[in-house]
Amino acid sequence: MPNTTRSAPEPEFLPKILTVLGEGYRASDLRADALAGLTVAIVALPLSMAIAIASGVEPERGLYTTIIGGFLVSALGGSRFQIGGPAGAFIVLVSACVMAIGIDGLILATFLSGFLLMAAGALRLGTYIRFIPYPVTVGFTAGIAVIIFASQIRDLFGLTLATPEPGEIVEKVHVLWAARDTVTPAAVAVALGVIAVIQGIKRWRPGAPGMLIAVALASVAVAALALPVETIGTKFGDLPRTPPAPALPVPTADALWQALPWAVSFTLLGAIESLLSAVVADGMSGARHRSNAELVAQGAANVGSALFGGFCVTGTIARTATNVRAGSRGPVSGMLHALFVLAFMLIAAPLAAYIPLAALAGVLAVVAWNMAEKEEFWHLLRASRADAMVLLVTFLLVVFRDLTEGIIVGFALGGLVFIARMSEAAEVTDAADMAISTADDDRVVIRLRGPWFFGAAARLGSVLERIADRPREFVIDLTDVPMIDSSGARSFLLLARRMARRGGILTVVGARPAVRDTLEHQGLLQQPVRFLPDLAALEQA
């Protein structure tokens, strides 16, 4: 006989690093993780600075976020391969937060978001985030891609703006268009060169670190040819060689009140982004992440990042995928990737001053292009009107209104579409269709199929009531009803009361234990109702 013994489930909040070490961690695993960590660090290095600059903060803050947040995500997280750090999806929120409440407010909001994420994990809310409809995630991701690209137009073209660049995309495009006469040809050439190198390496040498090579070549070219292109050094000065000592701005009641809405937005977006990234890693590797442990780790990482002057940390899909493809064996590679970035700060921070902003803009332009799930977007547009509506509403709200609003409205629309589809799946079959003897006109037998919940009850309740005007006995066969909610149960309660007023009786046949429990809790036993196991028992009654 096959062995049916099952191993005991692992604790829900156990970090994956302990699982990996418990399986036996060998020197060969460490070598593989070191190589994967170095590969991811090479990708994360330019991205961290580019995302920080695009978010309206100093480039070193992106490195702090990667070093502190990335290490904690891997050390404490519930995903075997998750890589944490600053993410392109946060660019719009972070830049808007900085403009609204400043750098200190951003750090405080990140700090508060960390505790909110830990609370979400402790309350096991991570289990439900995965139920976000697919059209919402595609529309959200595509909207983020558009926003990221729009945020890089100034540096891509080397524009000189007469007024500060606004965050709202329509106003942003207007301001950028007004500055079209200030295009710097050298900046355009650098950005296009970076994009071409990245795409060329991806095609001909997909294993090579295309982004780092492209940025390095652009930096050398700008320095050697003395091109009139703005660099990190000319805009921000030299990068510090070490992260700062941990500190947090002293919060006042007013500062906390101003930071809280931003913290909630960071929490919602960070939870969705990190768990989506963990799902992608699971699909690539065959592993299975612990969603609530991951949320707790993301929370700890945000608290740690804020203490060291960083900003929002989340799981990053591109870097996580790179980690899996590079042969990672577990969370050690993510921890090492953070240490490799720290080593860069200690050894080579002065070199970052030569990096052109146009080169980093080219990197983010490629990131935006890769983020936009173009084929999935097009397929969903053609799939059905309902999916297309959810997709487009989410996309347009993200681009033209607000990220959080796009997610919430998209999720609500997706839920309404699901309810409508489930309601349509519920069926009512009368006695004639079932070929059941009904010689006595005082009995009508009805079979229900599918889940009987508030959506189905609203659509089908009136049908049942019309039928119930005639018979003295009304029989409902629930054999094919897998679940029923309180609204569905109440529709039967009202039907039983109506039958009782007419001197009739309601008979329920084939109710599963869980369905019967719901009916009983709704008070159906206090009415003249018979429960029978099957239709055969009905004929014998």
Keywords:
two-stranded antiparallel ribbon; 24 helices; 5-stranded mixed sheet; STAS_dom; Transcription Regulator spoIIAA; SLC26A/SulP_dom; transmembrane; 2 domains; STAS_dom_sf; disordered N terminus; mainly alpha; transmembrane helix; 65% helix; 541 residues; 6% strand; single chain
Structure description:
It is built from 24 helices and 7 strands. The two termini are 43 Å apart. It has helices spanning 16-22, 27-54, 59-76, 91-122, 126-129, 134-151, 153-157, 169-178, 185-204, 210-225, 232-236, 253-285, 291-307, 317-325, 332-348, 357-371, 374-383, 385-400, 403-425, 431-434, 454-467, 486-501, 513-521, 535-540, and strands at 84-85, 314-315, 427-429, 443-449, 473-480, 505-509, 529-532. The chain has 2 domains: 18-243 and 259-411, no CATH class; 427-540, Transcription Regulator spoIIAA. Strand 4 (443-449), helix 21 and strand 5 (473-480) form a beta-alpha-beta unit. The model is unreliable at 1-9 and 431-439 (pLDDT under 50). With 541 residues, it is mostly helical.
